[in-house]
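At this stage, I put together one protein's amino acid sequence and its backbone structure tokens, which the following lines show:
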Amino acid sequence: MCSRSRKDKKSVLHNRKDIEQQRIRKRGLTGKAEHKMGKKVKSQPVTGWRLWLFRIVALSIIPALLFLLVEITLRIAGYGFPTRAIIKFKVNDSSYYCNNVKFTWRFFHTNVAREARSFLFPTDKSDDTYRVFVMGASAAAGTPDGAYSFSRILEVMLREQYPQAKFEVITLAMAAINSHVVVEIAKDCARHEPDLFIVYLGNNEVVGPYGAGTVFTPLSSNLTLIRLGIALKATKLGQLVTNLMESSGVKDVPKIWRGLEMFMEKQVRADEPGLQIVYSHFEKNLQDIRRVAFRSGAKTIFCTVASNLKDNPPFASLHRENLTDADVKNWEEFYQRCIMFEQVGNYTGAEDSYLSAAEIDESFADLQFRLGRCYWQIGEFDKARDRFLRARDLDTLRFRADTRINEIIRGVAGRGAGKGAYLVDVVKVFEDNSPHQIPGQELFYEHVHMNFSGDYLIAEAIFRQVEQILPQRIKHYRIEQRPLCTEEKCARYLAYTVWDRYKIAEEVLNGYIKLPPFTNQIYHSRQVRQMEQELLKARGDCYTPRVLEEVQVQYRWAIQQKPSDWWLHWKYGKFLSDLGNFDAAAEQYRLILRLVPHNYQAYARLGFISGKQGDLDASITHSLKAVQINPAYSDSYYNLALAYYKQGKLDEAAEYYKKVIQFRPDCIEAYTNLGVILERQGLRDEAVKQLRIALKIDPNSLNARKALEAISLKKSFK
């Protein structure tokens, strides 16, 4: 009995011990819970640094490990795209660096993403090389034709003055971007032994990514969060999440590039709080660009940003928010009276009425511009300049760098004077070279994009600053007493011909001025009439045998001076193609691919020309190469679809027309041709659907209407 009793007691003791340990585990307690000699020792909860350590591990290290695991898996699987602006490229077993056409996919939907034009430079930099990176948006890229950007004119000037030195002027500028993007570009450039950064930037701060008037990535007041988001999109997991959001329709971003028209509903008043956030971000981004350059050993030239004041009216105007209905009515009466005075040439009367309207509300941008025109007409040019500046700064569609943007540029350059930063005041240069110091159409195509004369002035101003900061290893190459290359000579070296002037004028009129928001501008119809008359005359001057022969001579001469300039071959090839000389044009595009083998547009042009010449296999080969380099290039998908259709391969043709629609959802021809193919395949309901989409985009599409009527006619016979 005694023995059994002792065993029962031990059993009970062990059971109690097990129950207590379970309680300890359930309560999340740690510590020793031991029973010694039948006595219970109470366990203590985790507190202090141990508890915080546990939380840190749970909240950071474990998610980080999971993130790393997914990231590695996606990289092994080959998912995503490279995110640096500059990537490695092999040419005949030699390593080079080139532009990454997918770089801006981090900031834009692939359908609307912009890119820098092709460049290629060696991985090994020689001692006699001076490497310059030019950064900015469309104005820095040379829009509407990058062949004549200020960076290319600058390169000609440097080459002429220092013929024995090697200047690599690499332009990493592109449309629609702003300082949030350029900071990332600067970081990438800093990895490649830069000597100089040239920054011409500021027009897109409001409408570009993370701006107050953007349609891309919304404004945030927290710059750290913006940069964290940009960094996450550089990861494969970040790209996966972004793609899932876009495919599910969660992310509301434009999927069709419509130029400035995309921003019509994104007006921003001068007193909106979001504008102050934009200015703050711009200043910090410029400071970081300066720091990145300094740490890499490069100097930085910051340029103020000029705009067309005299000949580009505001794109949109808004009254101040607290204006009463009665105030609006009175304002409108004065405003309409001003217009009548102005139309009959009574500018003094118009001035008085405009000033009366301004007393009620002076924030309406069009009012300020009209007042500036009145002062211009009566010869009060200082007052005119002041009003034109106000009109630009009050413009609620903010496509032009305003006064505050340029103040920030001057401030950042000034504070970095001892750290390798310099200022080229382009605004001042343009004022000094404009009638009555008010820049206008003498230097601009439209609102911000410079013509050749404007780009030459910028290049000249930058050149003079560059000469002061060149290292001695380069300076000793200078040819003394050689005059600076004139505008005419630079134009000759770059083959800026009468043909190119005509083609650019045609592009500006039809690709810009005739489209929104330019159509909203006051005096618009007058401007269009004037440009159409000038274009008609220019066309007559161009299309003569003598002029066309002269243009060819100029192209060939320029190419002879620098055969390695792929831009010259591109321009000459386009000229020959426009004249229908496809064999000679194809030779120029093949020369381009020897110089910059990653130039997908040269492959695309060869694909187009081969199709025109009936060599469908070659057209397919070249077009496939183009989309291999740039999978979002719809033109080559269209060429592929057309070539396969002509070969009778309807399934392949339909597949590529669907690709065109994926990247260009507004391509009427793709819907129409796809509809025709589907009908031939017996899929009439689907064919009708595609044709109706085409007619919804353009109700006047004759081809789509005929195809739809043909299907209806076949049904009626049955």
Remarks:
- The first strand starts at residue 35 and ends at 36.
- The mean pLDDT is 91.
